[in-house]
């Protein structure tokens, strides 16, 4: 898996460290086998995801390079606040860059402090170690001033690859909204300059429709997961949410609709991926960027099923649609700005919407409990965990707070805590 030697000349042309990259692919292949291919009773349509993963550094990279040869630009992003619609409207290709492996950590720690979250170390490490073909295929990276770690890391990152940073506010007052709207205009202008394409109202409308369709299919998937028994594992749902960041959006939507057709049948027939009565959990917290599958694997291996993700790689990222009505490009950009500022990331203060969403999601997915997941040294999410705890406590929903990173050192400790949490969940579960 993932070792097709035909791709080697392409990786060499991209300047990858071939030996290190071979190692990465072999670690990934092994982790994928253990986490994904070992699952029983997977939906058949997950075969598409298996194929995508088997070509994660192969065919998709080839597509990106073909797009570049055809005159299109490839633009990398690291955060939900960067509107994909603006990139698509300029005929660009948007790639959500992964930051979920610790293979480049030693490189990263040469320029960022050790007490930086694993996600930041991961993207810095990938670049320094020349291991990510997506990064190397990008014409431009867009950063954002969300948390302090990211915004300072982008200053260093810009010395390695051109990084255009937009300012995300920290609050949502009228003056923050107008700052944000002007940043959307500045981003639009930068992308037009890079691509040489004018972003018209028609192109923007089409791009909005494309990304909304992708979000809608993920809403469809989410609502199917509310069924008991759940028709798909949390691991597979996470993979789908990860792949949506770099697959072609139209193809992805079509394939995921086919998957949902299959899940519809499962739900109608009362069939699940796990037996009825399996404890159902909601994950809430930091994003799980590919290939970070550690915690979902441990949770489901312990006998629970994950039924929802209150996460950027999950429902926080796809909850809201962009309004499609509007005659002019400026009106459509207004809608984009509004939609993106509604995202409830912990980098904002106050962030009451997120607390409401965690409770609402736990109820909608009939979760028996919530696992709050934060990366070590992530101040926004580790701090906000306390409010999540208070809120869930008030709602009578059990919570387990975990902090971890991408290393495997704490696996047995995490397993013990997850198992203890599952044991204390009420035996008679009241749902709905
Ligand atoms: S919208 S969550 S993707 S900023 S884990 S780097 S917050 S120290 S990733 Fe994020 Fe956008 Fe918000 Fe989502 Fe900083 Fe925390 Fe690290 Fe984080």
Question: What would you say this structure looks like, in words?
Answer:
By secondary structure, the chain is of the alpha/beta class. 53% of the residues lie in helices and 10% in strands. It has 19 helices and eight strands. It has helices at residues 8-13, 18-37, 47-54, 59-69, 84-89, 105-108, 118-129, 133-136, 148-160, 174-195, 201-225, 234-243, 249-268, 294-301, 315-318, 329-341, 352-364, 379-395, 411-424; strands at 74-77, 93-96, 140-144, 163-166, 280-285, 305-310, 369-375, 399-404. Strands 2-1-3-4 form a four-stranded parallel beta sheet, sandwiched between helices. Strands 6-5-7-8 form a four-stranded parallel beta sheet, with helices on both faces. Strand 5 (280-285), helix 14 and strand 6 form a beta-alpha-beta unit. Helix 17 (352-364) crosses helix 18. The longest helix has 25 residues, at 201-225. Double cubane cluster binds next to helix 7, helix 9 and helix 18.
Oligomer: single chain
Q: State the strand order across the main sheet.
A: 2-1-3-4
State the separation between the terminal residues, measured CA to CA: 42 Å
What binds here, in terms of ligands, is: Double cubane cluster
Low-confidence stretches: none
Major beta sheet, specifics? 4 strands, parallel
What overall form do the CA principal axes indicate? globular
Question: Beta-sheet strand percentage?
Answer: 5-15%
Number of helices: 19
Question: What radius of gyration results from the CA coordinates?
Answer: 21 Å
Structural class: alpha/beta
């Amino acid at each position: 898996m993932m070792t097709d030697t035909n791709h080697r000349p392409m990786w060499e042309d991209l300047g990858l460290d071939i030996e290190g990259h071979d190692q990465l692919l072999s670690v990934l292949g092994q982790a994928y086998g253990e986490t994904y291919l070992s699952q029983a009773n997977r939906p058949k349509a997950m075969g598409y995801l298996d194929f995508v993963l088997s070509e994660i550094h192969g065919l998709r990279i080839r597509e990106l390079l073909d797009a570049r040869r055809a005159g299109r630009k490839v633009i990398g992003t690291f955060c939900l606040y960067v509107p994909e619609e603006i990139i698509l409207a300029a005929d660009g290709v948007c790639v959500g860059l992964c930051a979920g492996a610790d293979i480049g950590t030693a490189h990263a720690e040469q320029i960022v402090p050790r007490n930086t979250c694993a996600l930041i170390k991961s993207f810095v490490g990938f670049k320094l170690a020349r291991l990510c073909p997506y990064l190397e295929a990008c014409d431009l990276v867009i950063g954002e001033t969300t948390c302090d770690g990211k915004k300072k890391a982008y200053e260093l990152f810009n010395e390695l690859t051109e990084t255009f940073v937009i300012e995300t506010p920290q609050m949502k007052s009228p003056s923050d909204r107008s700052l944000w709207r002007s940043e959307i205009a500045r981003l639009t202008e930068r992308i037009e300059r890079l691509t040489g394409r004018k972003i018209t109202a028609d192109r923007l409308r089409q791009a909005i429709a494309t990304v909304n369709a992708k979000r809608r299919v993920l809403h469809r998937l989410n609502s199917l997961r509310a069924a008991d028994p759940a028709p798909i594992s949390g691991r597979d749902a996470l993979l789908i949410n990860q792949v949506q960041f770099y697959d072609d959006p139209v193809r992805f939507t079509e394939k995921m609709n086919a998957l949902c057709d299959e899940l519809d049948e499962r739900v109608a027939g009362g069939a699940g991926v796990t037996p009825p009565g399996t404890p159902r959990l909601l994950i809430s917290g930091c994003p799980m960027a590919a290939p970070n599958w550690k915690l979902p694997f441990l949770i489901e291996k312990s006998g629970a099923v994950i039924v929802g993700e209150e996460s950027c790689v999950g429902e926080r990222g796809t909850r809201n649609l962009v309004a499609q009505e509007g005659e002019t490009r400026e009106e459509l950009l207004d809608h984009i700005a509004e939609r993106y500022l509604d995202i409830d990331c912990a980098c904002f203060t106050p962030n009451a919407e997120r607390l409401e969403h965690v409770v609402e999601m736990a109820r909608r997915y009939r979760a028996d409990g919530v696992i709050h997941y934060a990366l070590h040294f992530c101040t926004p999410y580790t701090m906000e965990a306390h409010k999540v705890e208070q809120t869930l406590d008030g709602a009578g929903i059990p919570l387990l707070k975990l902090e971890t990173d991408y290393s495997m050192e704490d696996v047995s400790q995490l397993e013990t805590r997850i198992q203890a949490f599952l044991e204390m969940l009420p035996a008679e579960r009241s749902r709905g």
